[in-house]
Amino acid sequence: MDYRTISPSLPPVSIVSLGSWNTFSRCTPDGLVALLSRAFARGINLLDVGYYWDKPDTEDAVAAALDRIGAARSDYLIAQKLWLWNYPEEGFETQLARSLARLGHDHVDVVMVSRPTGETGFANYVAEVIALISKGMARAWGVTNFLPEQVAETLALCDANGWPRPSMLQMQYNVMRRGIVEGPGYDKLWSSGGPGLCAAHTMEGGILAGHLDRDRVDPPAMAAGVRPVGRNIARDSGGIREEIRLRQPALASLAEEIGATPAQLALAFVVDHPALSTALIGVSTPQQLDENLAALDLVSRLPEIRERLDALAIAGVGHPKLFNPHNDI
Ligand SMILES: NC(=O)c1ccc[n+]([C@@H]2O[C@H](COP(=O)([O-])OP(=O)(O)OC[C@H]3O[C@@H](n4cnc5c(N)ncnc54)[C@H](OP(=O)(O)O)[C@@H]3O)[C@@H](O)[C@H]2O)c1
């Protein structure tokens, strides 16, 4: 496992790390202990967790599993998502304190804050995040789905005030959903020494790995009793998912030609991004984890198939919409 330095306040982070949304909550307690134990044994040191609208028990499950594993707190890093569902009425400190109580920890390592709306006072927003670090509730911070100009504004604010810069930028990125992360604005960001890429949704919620029937169920539909096939996955920004399903067999046969699985090829592609800090993967068993980590040995073979990988990119990818489970349309 390779590691990347993302912040002077943190130890280097494993280039593959574990997402938790709709994966940890689908494990049995013993299954989650087995999965996290295997991840730590394989050198993964970052868990991306959050209070999820459709899986609100995830942090409790993580706390119970970590407790049973008995890992020293200094042996792993927690990246904690903070949302804007009730912001600014409910500030970040209240939200983080509640998550820390669920996790049974006194700090997280990175707080990952969502892209603010136009109305949110930007300087106050960043100052509020920095206060979490000053108070010792977090050691570093990162941003999720920020626009390039928002990242630039954030960096300028941090530099002007002597605040720590965000350590990484989480974005949806996979072999077919590439256009935003590789598009104008972000390419400049990656090459100018801004925060590194924390790649999420690297397998399109499992579709790239072969779960072709998966799709998004939005909060109103969920409230009306609709249940996802397999698991819920992220919204389809840009409306390209049907095309992703159609092209998945091409990814699978390209993978087969080089002796790999589609999950491995999908992950190798993301790990190869020059600005990568870490690639989040959602896995629900130690066997899947082991399968996927073999992707690290595939990266050196990507130049052989670069053109055919590039042909899998789908035009029309959209930037993720702001998410609010109370008002999601
Ligand atoms: N910033 C954003 O907008 C955004 C969007 C989406 C996600 N995220 C973050 O990224 C993290 C990961 O996202 P994600 O869950 O969408 O991840 P993903 O890695 O795209 O997909 C995870 C799914 O892939 C399947 N999978 C993985 N390896 C496999 C294998 N070897 N064989 C078969 N299936 C395999 C798993 O299926 P099974 O469930 O069947 O095991 C799993 O549920 C999340 O926890 C979330 O925090 C962020």
UniProtKB/TrEMBL annotation:
Gene3D superfamilies: NADP-dependent oxidoreductase domain (3.20.20.100). It comes from Novosphingobium anseongense. Signal peptide: none annotated. The lineage of its organism: Bacteria, Pseudomonadati, Pseudomonadota, Alphaproteobacteria, Sphingomonadales. Belongs to the shaker potassium channel beta subunit family. PANTHER family: HYPERKINETIC, ISOFORM M. InterPro entries: K_chnl_volt-dep_bsu_KCNAB-rel, NAD(P)_OxRdtase_dom_sf, NADP_OxRdtase_dom. Residues 17-298 form the NADP-dependent oxidoreductase domain. This is Aldo/keto reductase. It holds the Pfam family Aldo_ket_red. Keywords: NADP, Oxidoreductase.
